[in-house]
Specification:
histidinol-phosphate transaminase activity, 378 residues, Aspartate Aminotransferase, domain 2, globular, alpha/beta, Aspartate Aminotransferase, domain 1, three-stranded antiparallel β-sheet, 15% strand, 13 helices
Protein backbone atom coordinates (compact mmCIF):
# COMPACT_ATOMS: atom_id res chain seq x y z
CA UNK A 1 0.00 0.00 0.00
CA UNK A 2 1.38 3.39 -1.03
CA UNK A 3 -0.03 6.95 -0.96
CA UNK A 4 -1.14 8.49 -4.24
CA UNK A 5 1.52 9.89 -6.54
CA UNK A 6 2.86 13.01 -4.84
CA UNK A 7 5.84 13.57 -7.10
CA UNK A 8 4.42 16.88 -8.38
CA UNK A 9 3.99 18.20 -4.85
CA UNK A 10 6.59 20.39 -3.17
CA UNK A 11 7.24 20.49 0.55
CA UNK A 12 6.75 23.81 2.32
CA UNK A 13 10.02 25.14 3.73
CA UNK A 14 9.45 27.11 6.93
CA UNK A 15 11.97 29.46 8.50
CA UNK A 16 14.28 27.74 10.96
CA UNK A 17 13.53 28.10 14.67
CA UNK A 18 15.93 29.10 17.44
CA UNK A 19 15.72 25.76 19.28
CA UNK A 20 16.36 23.83 16.08
CA UNK A 21 19.42 25.90 15.19
CA UNK A 22 20.78 25.91 18.74
CA UNK A 23 20.59 22.11 18.97
CA UNK A 24 22.27 21.72 15.59
CA UNK A 25 25.15 24.02 16.54
CA UNK A 26 25.43 22.82 20.15
CA UNK A 27 24.77 26.28 21.59
CA UNK A 28 22.31 27.99 23.92
CA UNK A 29 19.05 29.34 22.43
CA UNK A 30 19.69 32.66 24.17
CA UNK A 31 22.61 33.28 21.80
CA UNK A 32 20.29 33.65 18.79
CA UNK A 33 17.86 36.13 17.33
CA UNK A 34 15.30 34.70 14.91
CA UNK A 35 14.30 37.02 12.06
CA UNK A 36 13.34 34.36 9.54
CA UNK A 37 9.59 33.75 9.85
CA UNK A 38 7.95 37.21 9.93
CA UNK A 39 6.76 36.69 13.48
CA UNK A 40 5.74 39.50 15.80
CA UNK A 41 8.77 40.68 17.82
CA UNK A 42 6.46 41.87 20.62
CA UNK A 43 4.83 38.48 20.97
CA UNK A 44 1.07 37.95 21.16
CA UNK A 45 -1.41 40.59 22.13
CA UNK A 46 -1.27 40.74 25.96
CA UNK A 47 -5.05 40.51 26.03
CA UNK A 48 -4.86 37.35 23.92
CA UNK A 49 -2.30 35.80 26.25
CA UNK A 50 -4.67 36.36 29.18
CA UNK A 51 -7.55 34.87 27.20
CA UNK A 52 -5.52 31.74 26.39
CA UNK A 53 -4.66 31.19 30.05
CA UNK A 54 -8.26 31.71 31.13
CA UNK A 55 -9.55 29.40 28.39
CA UNK A 56 -7.20 26.53 29.14
CA UNK A 57 -9.58 24.97 31.67
CA UNK A 58 -12.37 24.79 29.07
CA UNK A 59 -10.26 23.28 26.29
CA UNK A 60 -12.24 20.03 26.64
CA UNK A 61 -15.26 21.69 24.99
CA UNK A 62 -15.86 22.17 21.29
CA UNK A 63 -15.62 25.85 20.30
CA UNK A 64 -19.09 26.40 18.92
CA UNK A 65 -19.91 29.59 20.86
CA UNK A 66 -16.38 31.01 20.56
CA UNK A 67 -16.39 30.28 16.83
CA UNK A 68 -19.65 32.17 16.36
CA UNK A 69 -18.53 35.07 18.56
CA UNK A 70 -15.24 35.53 16.70
CA UNK A 71 -16.97 35.29 13.34
CA UNK A 72 -19.34 38.06 14.42
CA UNK A 73 -16.48 40.23 15.69
CA UNK A 74 -14.57 39.92 12.42
CA UNK A 75 -17.72 40.61 10.41
CA UNK A 76 -18.32 43.76 12.44
CA UNK A 77 -14.71 44.87 11.89
CA UNK A 78 -15.10 44.63 8.11
CA UNK A 79 -18.80 45.59 7.99
CA UNK A 80 -19.82 42.36 6.28
CA UNK A 81 -22.28 39.63 7.23
CA UNK A 82 -21.26 36.76 9.50
CA UNK A 83 -21.75 34.36 6.60
CA UNK A 84 -19.02 36.13 4.62
CA UNK A 85 -16.37 35.27 7.21
CA UNK A 86 -14.78 31.84 6.86
CA UNK A 87 -12.71 31.08 9.98
CA UNK A 88 -9.85 28.66 9.47
CA UNK A 89 -6.83 27.01 11.04
CA UNK A 90 -4.44 29.71 9.82
CA UNK A 91 -4.46 31.47 6.48
CA UNK A 92 -3.46 28.23 4.80
CA UNK A 93 -6.64 26.63 6.14
CA UNK A 94 -8.68 29.37 4.47
CA UNK A 95 -6.81 28.70 1.23
CA UNK A 96 -7.84 25.05 1.47
CA UNK A 97 -11.49 25.99 2.01
CA UNK A 98 -11.46 28.17 -1.09
CA UNK A 99 -9.83 25.36 -3.07
CA UNK A 100 -12.55 22.95 -1.93
CA UNK A 101 -15.27 25.42 -2.81
CA UNK A 102 -13.96 26.35 -6.26
CA UNK A 103 -11.70 23.74 -7.84
CA UNK A 104 -12.82 20.78 -9.89
CA UNK A 105 -10.17 18.17 -10.85
CA UNK A 106 -7.98 19.59 -13.58
CA UNK A 107 -8.88 23.24 -12.97
CA UNK A 108 -5.85 25.51 -13.03
CA UNK A 109 -4.71 28.01 -10.44
CA UNK A 110 -2.49 30.97 -11.35
CA UNK A 111 0.07 31.89 -8.68
CA UNK A 112 2.86 34.47 -8.41
CA UNK A 113 6.50 33.47 -8.77
CA UNK A 114 8.20 34.06 -6.42
CA UNK A 115 5.42 33.57 -3.92
CA UNK A 116 3.87 31.60 -1.07
CA UNK A 117 4.28 27.93 -1.89
CA UNK A 118 1.01 26.90 -0.28
CA UNK A 119 -1.12 28.46 -3.02
CA UNK A 120 0.10 25.80 -5.43
CA UNK A 121 0.26 23.09 -2.78
CA UNK A 122 -3.41 23.49 -1.94
CA UNK A 123 -4.40 23.46 -5.61
CA UNK A 124 -2.52 20.19 -6.16
CA UNK A 125 -3.98 18.65 -2.98
CA UNK A 126 -7.40 19.26 -4.54
CA UNK A 127 -6.38 17.73 -7.88
CA UNK A 128 -5.93 21.05 -9.61
CA UNK A 129 -3.12 22.25 -11.84
CA UNK A 130 -0.77 25.16 -11.14
CA UNK A 131 0.46 27.86 -13.47
CA UNK A 132 2.65 30.87 -12.67
CA UNK A 133 3.01 34.53 -13.51
CA UNK A 134 6.37 36.18 -12.91
CA UNK A 135 7.11 39.10 -10.61
CA UNK A 136 10.46 40.27 -11.88
CA UNK A 137 13.39 41.15 -9.65
CA UNK A 138 14.60 43.67 -12.23
CA UNK A 139 11.23 45.45 -12.02
CA UNK A 140 11.37 45.54 -8.20
CA UNK A 141 8.64 42.84 -8.11
CA UNK A 142 6.09 45.36 -9.38
CA UNK A 143 2.52 44.07 -9.31
CA UNK A 144 0.09 45.29 -11.94
CA UNK A 145 -2.94 44.06 -13.86
CA UNK A 146 -0.86 43.61 -17.01
CA UNK A 147 1.75 41.52 -15.19
CA UNK A 148 -0.93 39.12 -13.97
CA UNK A 149 -3.07 39.09 -17.11
CA UNK A 150 -0.08 38.31 -19.34
CA UNK A 151 0.07 34.94 -17.56
CA UNK A 152 -3.68 34.36 -17.38
CA UNK A 153 -5.27 31.65 -19.50
CA UNK A 154 -8.79 31.05 -18.19
CA UNK A 155 -7.56 29.87 -14.79
CA UNK A 156 -10.21 29.10 -12.17
CA UNK A 157 -8.33 30.86 -9.34
CA UNK A 158 -5.84 33.73 -9.49
CA UNK A 159 -3.77 34.56 -6.40
CA UNK A 160 -2.50 38.05 -5.64
CA UNK A 161 -0.39 38.84 -2.57
CA UNK A 162 -0.48 42.36 -1.14
CA UNK A 163 1.93 42.92 0.51
CA UNK A 164 3.82 40.29 -1.45
CA UNK A 165 6.00 37.75 0.31
CA UNK A 166 9.01 37.87 0.05
CA UNK A 167 9.42 41.26 -1.66
CA UNK A 168 6.94 43.44 0.25
CA UNK A 169 5.45 45.01 -2.90
CA UNK A 170 1.73 45.78 -3.06
CA UNK A 171 -0.91 46.06 -5.78
CA UNK A 172 -3.40 48.95 -5.94
CA UNK A 173 -7.12 48.24 -5.65
CA UNK A 174 -7.66 49.69 -9.13
CA UNK A 175 -5.34 47.03 -10.56
CA UNK A 176 -7.10 44.25 -8.64
CA UNK A 177 -10.46 45.47 -9.92
CA UNK A 178 -9.11 45.46 -13.47
CA UNK A 179 -7.90 41.89 -13.08
CA UNK A 180 -11.30 40.79 -11.79
CA UNK A 181 -13.05 42.62 -14.63
CA UNK A 182 -10.85 41.20 -17.39
CA UNK A 183 -10.77 37.58 -16.22
CA UNK A 184 -13.54 35.08 -16.91
CA UNK A 185 -16.80 35.21 -14.97
CA UNK A 186 -15.95 31.91 -13.29
CA UNK A 187 -12.46 32.99 -12.19
CA UNK A 188 -11.99 33.77 -8.50
CA UNK A 189 -9.42 36.44 -7.65
CA UNK A 190 -7.98 35.75 -4.19
CA UNK A 191 -6.13 38.63 -2.53
CA UNK A 192 -3.85 37.44 0.26
CA UNK A 193 -3.55 40.26 2.80
CA UNK A 194 -1.71 38.35 5.52
CA UNK A 195 0.54 41.40 5.98
CA UNK A 196 -2.21 43.92 5.29
CA UNK A 197 -1.98 45.71 8.64
CA UNK A 198 1.56 46.82 7.81
CA UNK A 199 0.66 48.43 4.46
CA UNK A 200 -0.69 51.92 3.91
CA UNK A 201 -3.40 50.64 1.57
CA UNK A 202 -7.12 49.90 1.71
CA UNK A 203 -8.20 46.28 1.89
CA UNK A 204 -9.63 44.53 -1.16
CA UNK A 205 -12.73 43.87 0.97
CA UNK A 206 -13.83 47.19 -0.59
CA UNK A 207 -14.14 45.37 -3.94
CA UNK A 208 -16.34 42.65 -2.47
CA UNK A 209 -18.66 45.16 -0.86
CA UNK A 210 -18.66 47.82 -3.58
CA UNK A 211 -17.12 50.61 -1.49
CA UNK A 212 -14.80 53.52 -2.27
CA UNK A 213 -16.25 53.97 -5.73
CA UNK A 214 -15.93 50.32 -6.83
CA UNK A 215 -18.73 48.09 -8.04
CA UNK A 216 -19.50 45.13 -5.76
CA UNK A 217 -18.01 41.89 -7.04
CA UNK A 218 -18.85 38.24 -6.47
CA UNK A 219 -15.51 37.01 -7.85
CA UNK A 220 -13.07 38.38 -5.25
CA UNK A 221 -12.09 36.88 -1.89
CA UNK A 222 -9.67 38.25 0.71
CA UNK A 223 -7.40 36.32 3.06
CA UNK A 224 -6.38 37.65 6.48
CA UNK A 225 -4.53 36.18 9.45
CA UNK A 226 -3.96 36.69 13.17
CA UNK A 227 -0.41 35.34 12.84
CA UNK A 228 1.42 38.56 12.01
CA UNK A 229 0.23 41.89 13.44
CA UNK A 230 -1.67 40.17 16.25
CA UNK A 231 1.22 37.85 17.14
CA UNK A 232 -0.81 34.63 17.22
CA UNK A 233 1.13 32.46 14.76
CA UNK A 234 1.35 29.64 17.29
CA UNK A 235 -2.40 29.18 17.70
CA UNK A 236 -3.06 29.04 13.91
CA UNK A 237 -5.94 31.38 13.21
CA UNK A 238 -6.90 32.96 9.90
CA UNK A 239 -9.96 33.66 7.80
CA UNK A 240 -11.32 34.54 4.39
CA UNK A 241 -13.83 37.27 3.58
CA UNK A 242 -15.96 36.10 0.66
CA UNK A 243 -18.86 37.47 -1.42
CA UNK A 244 -22.31 37.36 0.14
CA UNK A 245 -23.41 34.93 -2.58
CA UNK A 246 -21.11 32.30 -1.05
CA UNK A 247 -23.01 32.10 2.23
CA UNK A 248 -24.02 28.44 1.94
CA UNK A 249 -20.65 27.08 0.85
CA UNK A 250 -18.70 27.33 4.11
CA UNK A 251 -20.69 24.72 6.00
CA UNK A 252 -20.12 22.29 3.13
CA UNK A 253 -16.34 22.68 2.84
CA UNK A 254 -14.95 23.48 6.29
CA UNK A 255 -13.68 21.00 8.83
CA UNK A 256 -15.79 20.62 11.99
CA UNK A 257 -14.96 23.52 14.31
CA UNK A 258 -12.46 25.04 11.92
CA UNK A 259 -10.60 26.96 14.63
CA UNK A 260 -9.85 25.77 18.16
CA UNK A 261 -11.36 27.10 21.38
CA UNK A 262 -8.01 28.59 22.40
CA UNK A 263 -7.54 30.20 18.99
CA UNK A 264 -11.03 31.69 18.92
CA UNK A 265 -10.78 33.14 22.43
CA UNK A 266 -7.33 34.52 21.67
CA UNK A 267 -8.63 36.06 18.46
CA UNK A 268 -11.59 37.65 20.25
CA UNK A 269 -9.24 39.32 22.71
CA UNK A 270 -6.65 40.32 20.11
CA UNK A 271 -9.04 41.88 17.61
CA UNK A 272 -9.83 44.68 20.05
CA UNK A 273 -6.22 45.23 21.16
CA UNK A 274 -5.55 48.14 18.81
CA UNK A 275 -2.67 49.39 20.94
CA UNK A 276 -0.71 46.18 20.40
CA UNK A 277 -1.30 46.26 16.64
CA UNK A 278 -0.31 49.92 16.40
CA UNK A 279 2.89 49.28 18.34
CA UNK A 280 3.69 46.32 16.10
CA UNK A 281 3.09 48.27 12.89
CA UNK A 282 5.20 51.21 14.09
CA UNK A 283 8.05 48.86 15.01
CA UNK A 284 7.92 47.31 11.54
CA UNK A 285 8.02 50.70 9.84
CA UNK A 286 10.99 51.85 11.89
CA UNK A 287 12.81 48.56 11.34
CA UNK A 288 12.23 48.63 7.57
CA UNK A 289 13.57 52.16 7.36
CA UNK A 290 16.62 51.34 9.47
CA UNK A 291 17.51 48.32 7.34
CA UNK A 292 17.10 50.25 4.10
CA UNK A 293 19.29 53.06 5.41
CA UNK A 294 22.01 50.93 6.99
CA UNK A 295 22.40 47.61 5.17
CA UNK A 296 25.34 47.97 2.80
CA UNK A 297 23.59 46.40 -0.17
CA UNK A 298 20.32 46.75 -2.06
CA UNK A 299 17.15 46.47 0.03
CA UNK A 300 13.79 46.52 -1.73
CA UNK A 301 11.00 48.81 -0.61
CA UNK A 302 8.57 46.81 1.51
CA UNK A 303 5.14 47.30 3.03
CA UNK A 304 5.30 44.09 5.04
CA UNK A 305 7.01 43.33 8.36
CA UNK A 306 10.15 42.22 6.53
CA UNK A 307 12.59 43.31 3.86
CA UNK A 308 14.17 41.48 0.95
CA UNK A 309 17.93 41.96 0.71
CA UNK A 310 20.26 41.35 -2.23
CA UNK A 311 23.31 39.46 -0.89
CA UNK A 312 24.70 37.56 -3.89
CA UNK A 313 24.77 34.10 -2.31
CA UNK A 314 21.81 33.62 0.01
CA UNK A 315 22.77 30.19 1.31
CA UNK A 316 26.27 31.18 2.39
CA UNK A 317 25.27 34.55 3.82
CA UNK A 318 22.37 33.02 5.76
CA UNK A 319 24.56 30.23 7.10
CA UNK A 320 27.28 32.63 8.20
CA UNK A 321 24.80 35.03 9.80
CA UNK A 322 23.30 32.07 11.65
CA UNK A 323 26.75 31.08 12.93
CA UNK A 324 26.98 34.60 14.33
CA UNK A 325 23.62 34.30 16.05
CA UNK A 326 21.18 35.93 13.61
CA UNK A 327 18.73 33.62 11.82
CA UNK A 328 17.45 35.06 8.52
CA UNK A 329 15.55 33.48 5.64
CA UNK A 330 17.49 32.11 2.68
CA UNK A 331 15.15 32.85 -0.24
CA UNK A 332 16.50 30.12 -2.52
CA UNK A 333 13.25 28.21 -1.96
CA UNK A 334 11.43 31.24 -3.43
CA UNK A 335 13.59 31.03 -6.54
CA UNK A 336 15.80 33.89 -5.35
CA UNK A 337 19.20 32.33 -4.56
CA UNK A 338 20.82 35.75 -4.31
CA UNK A 339 18.45 37.14 -1.66
CA UNK A 340 17.70 36.83 2.02
CA UNK A 341 14.59 38.04 3.82
CA UNK A 342 14.92 39.69 7.22
CA UNK A 343 11.93 40.04 9.53
CA UNK A 344 11.44 43.39 11.22
CA UNK A 345 12.51 42.96 14.83
CA UNK A 346 12.77 45.17 17.87
CA UNK A 347 15.25 48.04 17.74
CA UNK A 348 18.00 45.90 19.31
CA UNK A 349 17.24 42.91 17.09
CA UNK A 350 17.20 45.03 13.94
CA UNK A 351 20.48 46.75 14.78
CA UNK A 352 22.12 43.39 15.52
CA UNK A 353 20.86 41.96 12.24
CA UNK A 354 22.16 44.90 10.23
CA UNK A 355 25.56 44.80 11.92
CA UNK A 356 25.85 41.04 11.44
CA UNK A 357 24.79 40.97 7.79
CA UNK A 358 27.10 43.87 6.93
CA UNK A 359 30.00 42.06 8.60
CA UNK A 360 29.18 38.85 6.72
CA UNK A 361 29.01 40.65 3.38
CA UNK A 362 32.36 42.28 4.05
CA UNK A 363 34.05 39.08 5.26
CA UNK A 364 32.78 37.03 2.31
CA UNK A 365 33.55 39.85 -0.15
CA UNK A 366 30.09 39.54 -1.66
CA UNK A 367 29.21 41.23 -4.94
CA UNK A 368 25.42 40.86 -5.31
CA UNK A 369 25.60 41.77 -9.00
CA UNK A 370 27.65 38.63 -9.66
CA UNK A 371 25.33 36.44 -7.57
CA UNK A 372 28.30 34.63 -6.02
CA UNK A 373 30.90 35.14 -3.29
CA UNK A 374 34.62 35.20 -2.94
CA UNK A 375 36.32 34.13 0.27
CA UNK A 376 39.55 36.05 0.96
CA UNK A 377 42.75 34.14 1.57
CA UNK A 378 43.34 33.17 5.17
Amino acid sequence: MQPRDLSDHVAYEAGRGIEEVARELGREPSEFVKLASNENPHGPSPAAAVAIRETASSASSYPKAAHADLTAAIAERWDVTDEQVWLANGGDGAIDYLSRAVLEPGDSTLVPSPGFAYYGMSARFHHGEVREYALEKDDDFEQSAETVLEGYDGDRVVYLTSPHNPSGSTIPLEEIAEIAERTDEETLVVVDEAYGEFADRESAVALIEGRDGFDARDDVAVLRTFSKAYGLAGVRLGYAVVPDEWADAYARVNTPFAASELACRAGLAAIDDDEHVQRTVETARESREYMRDNLETHVWESEGNFVLVDVGDAERVAEEAQERGVIVRDCTSFGLPGCIRITCGTEDETERAVETVNEVLADLDVDPDRNDTEVPDA
